[in-house]
């Protein structure tokens, strides 16, 4: 049984334990890997993530009152609030809610608001019970949070008859993450989880939110995406992520542009003269990363996935040296994978821990994985979790 199939069973069983009834339906949404374009999303720039074949499942049933109750395999204690109280909880009193429950409750809060904006009386939205089970590893940089948000948003959209678009549901997920959880993230993860397609990446313009499906062709090219979860976990609601974001905003202000997206590599000489070295290097990462995304999309379309190895490597070097969000474990994973024959490798996600990805020939996967495991042991690091992922479909109703 795959991890996602177990999560499907677990979510339904958990629902039945909680309510004594069978759920009205179950919905699921995937985690994501970002192929390229890191820390560009909140700078209005470009990204190419793909949804992975590990999903979070929400088993949902309606109630005859106006309360929402959530339970998950993360925590045996359910959390219950009146729908009418959500506006009072978020964002000001979010600390009253245990952290995992802020994700699904935050989505309900954001959707209630979206319904109101679309002219629906929120009092017409009925109570729900939601049981969540996840096959997406938590803290690995694979967006387990966007998977919870996507599964919850897709379920509530159907159960409440909201008829919101996938992009509107992604926005609600992001709002939950930013305001209900308190992590100042961009919209990449939610868009990937909502819009993912089998064998394809989502080329996203984070300013217009226009998304194009880009054929990745990994299988045809005989390639696999190997994930090295360093098991050094990260949290974007604290510290480094917000600091990087602030540095980018400072850089844009100094350059007199709305966002770093509005700069090109040709502006970098001027940027170097106008700002301190640290801010400059943060800016240089984002500006060159946007360019690498555009180059990667062009190369994927013209020559296929083997041609993007050098861009993955350059992306990693830029995150390590300029943006300074890599860790010794991530660097070792990337260097070892490359030496063992990967076509290209980079850390993926927000950084400060989490996972690296390597594009590897199907026949060399075991060899590269073994090399990474041996290198971690030799360095005295904890054992990584190494596995392959496949570009998969986004959020949908399962049954
Ligand atoms: C996290 C955030 C995303 C994005 C990445 C970095 O995954 O949730 O919005 O900023 O980091 O690319």
Features:
399 residues, alpha+beta, eight-stranded mixed sheet, four-stranded antiparallel sheet, 43% helix, globular, binds alpha-D-galactopyranose
What do you see in this structure?
With 399 residues, the chain is of the alpha+beta class. It is built from 12 helices and 12 strands. The strands form 2 sheets. Strands 1, 2, 3, 4, 5, 6, 7 and 12 form an 8-stranded mixed sheet that branches. A hairpin with a 2-residue loop joins strand 3 and strand 4. The longest helix has 27 residues, at 277-303. The chain is globular, with a radius of gyration of 21 Å. It starts with a helix and ends with a strand. The relative contact order is 0.17. The mean pLDDT is 97. Alpha-D-galactopyranose binds next to helix 6.
Topology:
Elements lengths: L2 H17 L5 E12 L9 E17 L4 E6 L2 E8 L3 H4 L9 H19 L10 E7 L9 H16 L6 H16 L6 H8 L4 E6 L5 E5 L7 E7 L10 H16 L12 H7 L2 H27 L5 H15 L4 H12 L4 E5 L6 E7 L3 H15 L5 E5 L6 E2 L2
Parallel strand pairs: 3-5
Antiparallel strand pairs: 1-2, 1-12, 2-5, 2-6, 3-4, 6-7, 8-10, 8-11, 9-10
Helix pairs in contact: 3-4, 3-5, 4-5, 4-6, 5-6, 7-9, 8-9, 9-10, 11-12
Bound molecules: alpha-D-galactopyranose.
Unreliable stretches (pLDDT < 50, length at least 5) are: none
Number of distinct beta strands: 12
SSE pattern, N- to C-terminal = HEEEEHHEHHHEEEHHHHHEEHEE
- Helicity level, as a percent range? 40-55%
The bound ligands are: alpha-D-galactopyranose
Sheet having the most strands: 8 strands, mixed
Structural class: alpha+beta
- Using the alpha-carbon principal axes, give the shape: globular
Distance between the termini: 18 Å
Strand content: 15-25%
């Amino acid at each position: 049984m795959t991890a996602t199939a177990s999560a499907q069973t677990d979510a339904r069983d958990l629902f039945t334990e909680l309510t004594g009834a069978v759920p009205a339906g179950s919905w699921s949404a995937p985690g994501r890997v970002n192929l390229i374009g890191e820390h560009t999303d909140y700078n209005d720039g470009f990204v190419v993530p793909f949804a992975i074949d590990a999903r979070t499942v929400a088993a949902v049933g309606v109630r005859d009152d106006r309360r929402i109750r959530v339970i998950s395999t993360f925590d045996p204690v359910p959390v219950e609030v009146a729908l009418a109280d959500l506006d009072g909880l978020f964002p000001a009193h979010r600390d009253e809610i245990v952290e995992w429950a802020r994700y699904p409750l935050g989505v309900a809060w954001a959707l209630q608001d979206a319904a109101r904006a679309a002219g629906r009386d929120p009092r017409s939205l009925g109570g729900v019970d939601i049981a969540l089970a996840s096959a997406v590893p938590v803290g690995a940089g694979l967006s387990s949070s966007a998977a919870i948000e996507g599964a919850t948003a897709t379920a509530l959209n159907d159960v409440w008859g909201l008829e919101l678009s996938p992009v509107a549901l992604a926005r609600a997920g992001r709002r939950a993450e930013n305001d209900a959880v308190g992590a100042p993230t961009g919209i990449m993860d939610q868009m990937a989880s909502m819009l993912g397609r089998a064998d394809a990446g989502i080329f996203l313009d984070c300013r217009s939110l226009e998304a194009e499906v880009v054929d990745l062709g990994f299988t045809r090219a005989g390639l696999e995406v190997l994930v090295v979860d360093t098991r050094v976990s990260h949290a974007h609601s604290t510290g480094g992520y917000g600091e990087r974001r602030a540095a980018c905003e400072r850089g844009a202000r100094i350059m007199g542009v709305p966002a770093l997206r509005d700069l090109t590599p040709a502006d970098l000489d001027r940027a170097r003269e106008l700002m301190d070295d640290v801010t400059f290097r943060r800016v240089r990462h984002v500006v060159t990363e946007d360019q690498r995304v555009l180059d990667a999309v062009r190369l994927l379309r013209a020559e296929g996935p083997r041609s993007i190895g050098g861009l993955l490597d350059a992306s990693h070097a830029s995150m390590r040296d300029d943006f300074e969000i890599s860790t010794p474990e991530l660097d070792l994973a990337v260097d070892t994978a490359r030496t063992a024959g990967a076509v290209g490798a980079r850390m993926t996600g927000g950084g400060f821990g989490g996972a690296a990805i390597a594009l590897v020939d199907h026949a060399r996967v075991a060899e590269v994985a073994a090399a990474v495991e041996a290198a971690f042991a030799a360095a005295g690091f904890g054992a990584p979790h190494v596995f392959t992922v496949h570009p998969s479909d986004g959020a949908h109703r399962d049954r």
